[in-house]
Design goal:
heterotrimer, A mainly alpha, B mainly alpha, C alpha/beta, A: mainly alpha, flat, B: mainly alpha, MetI-like fold, about 70% helix
């Protein structure tokens, strides 16, 4: 079998046969220029056809219908074109990719629509005195620029704050239980936490209504609302904290235990501080979740147009609650005011969301983002040895 | 040294019991932590208990008919009330939202894990999560003022061209504020939940099998169909059930968008639908402290139990499936 | 060789026995990002022969193998230079899609990876489905390839059992049958026996020697005795600190092991390092 083999051991020759000074690296292109041309041609052709037929033949109206039809026609044309050129196998692959990509990116549209519409309806009424005045003296006759939202802001901050003060220790302790103590109860508790995350917000509100407002005869109060929010916030804090705690390397715990520290010191002095950033993220995520809750507040805090800074006594207002109550009045000024409140609310949510994202990206080891999406890391830049990932 | 064959059976070494004596600090710590864990159970149990106590008068009043009566006329307005129609619509609206949300979520999760490069995948993930962060009130307000009018055209088209199918029939030209519109808005809230779980699940598909599929000459889509989707079946089902739980329990959106109906019909494009959450939100004010309030509590109890069952099932399905190992839902 | 028409080839009336082809690599370099892992590899892998790639860990043998069937480019940041020609056709040129290349150049992996969601029968046929080949005599293909892989007698009565419910050695033979079902011209094997017991290893080596009559085989192995047993030609890869991996010596197997030209080869095959 030893025929003409071109053996080129390096030590024999000083130079290579092809005088290439430096090899130029290249990455084979999966999507060639011709592929791009086919894609563009299909898009243009399908768009033209749909545009021609649109208002004349099909009784649709509106840009949404047009875009949907265009997308559908595009997929059909693209599929047929690729099938002609490359065969059915590649055609299926390409159409699947186009459909999946299109649908995924289309999600951005409703999101932008919601954020944009809220800003468009509400931002125009925002004035500086929104943060200093209340609605105590404002009525449906007054335009939406008058009055303010101080009572709602104070209410929301106090309610969410109290909810956080209860759910954070409880939630982190539960996460510690799940992760550090465990035992036979671990699985049932995890099931309970999951079950709790599914409790409808109105049910949480009704529960607190029963025990606090009625049976304990406290009446409506901010504290009642806070308790309802706690029930909703607790599972989020628990689960996110548990994930964060799990990411703390076991070696740290072992080192602490090997030094003779008892479990509780290990948890308190080693594990929790390491996970601190992640736990803060969990808290922020929990707050973002409950800050916009309306339903439970309807039945627990009732709402108040004047400032009530005491959460333990008397009805209190909240941003989402007031927005809802204004909205359902139906009167123009009130509806506008509702949008103003909604706009402030969503700004607050966005701030919390961005804060959680920024902190989350700096979690354990600084690679929080990648761990959260948990993509299979074939990237050698991640420290994986660049040979077969299957080995 | 005696060889094993020389030894008597009773001389073979046996493991010795290890006794764990904890410090006082640790005993307290463990008890506290366990208490916190059990607190979750206690809260859940209390919710069920108190809802039941408050609901009993209403349940006793109507008996089993509470679950079958369609109308909602508790005292002082009337004497009959029941969640038959309300529960029906709750499930219908939730189903519509799933029909839209599940395929979209599968597509998005696949796109993020299999197609998108990291610079596109991460922002897209954030955007989808942002959809979840938007308060449901704002979904409701936007839905009623922005989306509802725009969906009337689509509803008209569907009922004109596909009206021979019973669910697309519409009587009296009453479009909008329908189960279809409610379900569509709800799907936007369900998509982020489903996508997050499915994303986790798909990303755990075994790399060895994926490589094997590609090495046989498969395309990316072929590989997804042969490896990723079969692997992710359990996760898809679990995610859908989680989404279902969310959709069943939603209150504010449906309170604002739906025009309440207490009649059962298959016509989802027609104005008129309902949900338990919306029922409670809309009727709470008038409840007072009479049987009407008890009735609302009974409705809340039913919803609580339903979502509890759905969520627990979802949790079990994901955990038991091949794809569920190590996935958090 | 007609490039892209997958449909035309799979004429269901023709029993497709693959035509073995010669694989020729010239001036191949490989990078992961900026990290240069393989330098200037030139190697001819003749038809109907078994070429073994030997050498210590980390010298790029597996990377080279993956360049041959265009799996290397699936890793983000991977790049290459040089040419790979299958019977004269540049694999990285415009004529062949990567999917077509991988159909013609099959691969068996170190860790057996049958599809657990499919039955044994479906596993064998999965390659046909994935590469878009239509076949009417599916049953014949299943029997033929499982026989070639040396697995038929063991599984012929349980073809509808899941593909994962087999022992390691059986799974690997199933993977070989699966690869053979698409009638490849070349079969790459990346340490196929390293996760298996000696008996399975021997069965697979027998299989290799039988199928070498109609499939060109290139095998990466750490097991020098295995290389001696099965291959006709060996290429010795080596890597030095700070340099990319490269081929040190190529030659007939007997020569590489009994009388190598390069002292580094001699050191390796006599076990003085690696």
């Amino acid at each position: 079998m030893a025929t003409s083999l071109r053996a080129r051991p390096r030590f024999r020759r000083a130079h290579r046969r092809d005088a290439k000074p430096d090899p130029t690296a290249r990455r084979p292109r999966r999507f060639t220029r011709r592929d791009g041309a086919v894609l563009a041609a299909s898009a243009i052709a399908s768009g033209s056809i749909v545009w021609l037929l649109y208002e004349r033949i099909l009784p649709f109206a509106g840009i949404q219908g047009f875009l949907v039809l265009w997308f559908g026609t595009f997929l059909a044309m693209y599929g047929l074109a690729v099938r002609e050129l490359e065969g059915t196998l590649i055609a299926k692959d390409r159409v699947a990719a186009a459909a999946i990509g299109g649908v995924s990116l289309a999600i951005i549209v409703p999101l932008l629509a919601i954020l944009g519409y809220t800003a468009w309806r509400g931002a125009v009424y925002l004035r500086a005195h929104f943060f200093t005045e209340t609605l105590e003296f404002t009525g449906p006759e007054d335009p939406a620029t008058s009055g303010g939202g101080l009572q709602a802001i104070v209410g929301t901050l106090e309610q969410v704050g109290i909810a956080a003060m209860i759910s954070v220790p409880l939630g982190v302790l539960t996460a510690v239980f799940l992760n550090e103590v465990g035992g036979r109860l671990r699985r049932p508790v995890r099931v309970f936490v999951d079950a709790m995350s599914g409790v409808p917000s109105i049910v949480a509100g009704l529960f607190i209504y029963i025990i606090l407002v009625v049976r304990a005869d406290w009446g409506f109060s901010g504290f009642a609302g806070a308790l309802a929010l706690t029930i909703l916030m607790l599972p989020t804090v628990t689960r996110t904290s548990e994930v964060v705690l799990r990411l703390v390397p076991g070696g740290l715990r072992e080192a602490s235990l090997a030094l003779g520290a008892p479990e509780w010191r290990t948890a308190w002095n080693v594990v929790l501080p390491t996970a601190r950033l992640g736990i803060i993220t969990a808290v922020i995520l929990g707050m973002a979740r409950v800050i916009g809750e309306t339903a439970p507040l309807i039945v627990t805090t009732l709402g108040n147009t004047s400032l009530n800074a005491n959460p333990f006594d008397g009805p209190q207002d909240a941003l989402p609650l007031r927005s809802y109550l204004l909205f359902i009045q139906g009167v123009d000024n009130q509806v506008n005011r509702a949008w103003l409140y909604a706009f402030v609310l969503i700004m607050l949510v966005l701030i919390l969301f961005v804060a959680a994202r920024v902190l989350g990206a700096r979690r354990v080891g600084g690679r929080g983002e990648r761990r959260r999406t948990r993509e299979p890391s074939l990237d050698p830049a991640d420290g994986v040895v660049p040979v077969s990932p299957a080995s | 040294m005696p060889t094993p064959t020389d030894q008597d059976q009773s001389d073979l070494p046996t493991p010795r019991p290890i006794s764990i004596v904890r410090t006082r600090g640790d005993r307290v710590f463990r008890r506290l932590a366990t208490g916190a864990g059990l607190a979750t159970f206690v809260i859940l149990a209390l919710i069920g208990l108190f809802l039941l106590l408050e609901a009993l008068p209403a349940l006793k009043d109507q008996g089993w008919k509470f679950f079958t009566n369609f109308e909602w006329n508790p005292p002082p307005r009337g004497t009959t009330f029941g969640i038959g129609a309300v529960m029906y619509w709750t499930v219908v609206v939730a189903t519509i939202s799933l029909v839209i949300a599940v395929p979209v979520s599968i597509a998005t999760a696949l796109f993020i894990t299999e197609y998108a490069p990291p610079w596109l995948g991460r922002p897209l993930t954030s955007l989808v999560d942002l959809l979840a962060a938007v308060p449901s009130l704002i979904y409701g307000m936007w839905g009623v003022l922005f989306l509802n009018p725009r969906m009337i055209g689509l509803s008209e088209w569907l009922s004109t061209h596909l009206g021979f199918i019973p669910i697309f029939e519409v009587h009296n030209d009453a479009f909008g504020n329908s189960a279809f519109v409610g379900g569509s808005i709800l799907s936007l809230m369900v998509i982020p939940i489903c996508t997050a779980v499915m994303r986790e699940v798909f990303s755990q598909a075994p790399a060895g099998e994926k490589e094997g599929a590609l090495a046989l000459g498969g395309t990316r889509w072929g590989m997804i169909r042969a490896v990723v989707l079969p692997f992710g079946k359990g996760g898809i089902v679990g995610a859908s059930m989680l989404g279902l739980g969310r959709a069943l329990g939603e209150t504010i959106v449906l309170a604002l968008v739906l025009s309440p109906s207490f009649l059962i019909s298959p016509r989802i494009l027609e104005r008129g639908a309902n949900s338990v959450g919306a029922l409670i939100a809309n009727n709470f004010g008038e409840g007072g402290s009479g049987l009407g309030l008890n009735a609302l509590m009974a409705a809340g109890l039913s919803l609580f139990l339903l979502t509890l069952v759905v969520n627990t099932l979802a949790s079990v399905v994901v955990a038991r499936s091949r794809s569920g190992q190590g996935v958090e839902i | 060789m007609s490039p892209v028409q997958t449909e035309a080839r799979s004429d269901p009336d023709v029993v497709t026995l693959p035509e073995p082809a010669t694989l020729f690599a010239e001036g191949v370099h490989a990078w992961f990002g900026d990290h240069h892992v393989l330098a200037d590899v030139t190697l001819e892998m003749p038809a109907r022969a078994i070429t073994a790639l030997i050498g210590p860990s980390g010298c790029g043998k597996s990377t080279f193998l993956r360049i041959l069937n265009r799996m290397h480019e699936l890793v983000p940041g991977a790049a290459l230079a040089g040419e790979i020609r299958l019977d004269g056709v540049d694999l990285y040129g415009q004529q062949m899609r990567a999917t077509e290349t991988r159909r013609r150049i099959g691969m068996v992996f170190q860790k057996p990876n049958p599809f657990p969601a499919m039955t044994i029968r479906e596993n064998v046929l999965s390659g046909l489905k994935l590469s878009g080949m239509k076949l009417r005599n599916a049953g014949d293909v299943v029997e033929r390839t499982l026989t070639q892989a040396g697995l038929w007698t063991e599984v012929k009565n349980r073809l509808d059992r899941p593909g994962g419910a087999l022992s390691g050695g059986q799974q690997q033979r199933l993977c070989i049958a699966r690869s053979l079902a698409v009638s490849p011209q070349v079969l790459l094997m990346d340490e196929p026996c390293s996760a298996l017991d000696p008996t399975s290893t021997r069965r697979i080596e027998e299989t290799m020697q039988e199928i070498a009559h109609f499939v060109t085989i290139v095998i990466v192995t750490h097991n020098m005795q295995q290389a001696q047993r099965v291959s006709q030609q060996c290429a010795f890869f080596n890597v030095e600190e700070g340099s990319p991996g490269a081929i040190v010596e190529i030659g007939p197997t007997e020569k590489i092991f009994d009388d190598p030209d390069d002292p580094r080869t001699a050191d390796y095959v006599h076990g003085r390092f690696g």
